[in-house]
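Consider a protein example.
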Amino acid sequence: MFGLGATELAIILAIAILLFGARRLPEIGAGVGKAIKNFRAGMSGKDEIDVTPEPDAGRREKPEVTDGKAADRRESSGKSEAERRRTP
């Protein structure tokens, strides 16, 4: 391929071990392998993400029906229901 023999590959491996350490080489190899796999999948043109909307995605839920007064009181004061009953 590139004309690399066993001696050249051994020298490259020794330099890699010196630079990154023996513990990190498997992590680096796995990362490079995943990157190549993702690159090939991206080049094939197959999209993994489906962006088509669901048929009921446009439907909205009905808001909760209240008398309005109680909701306004709860929003306006930061007090709980028990605290509001105690104060005149």
Q: What stands out?
A: The mean pLDDT is 76. The two ends are 89 Å apart (CA to CA). The CA atoms of residues 62 and 69 lie 19 Å apart. The helical segments are 6-20, 25-44, 69-76, 81-86.
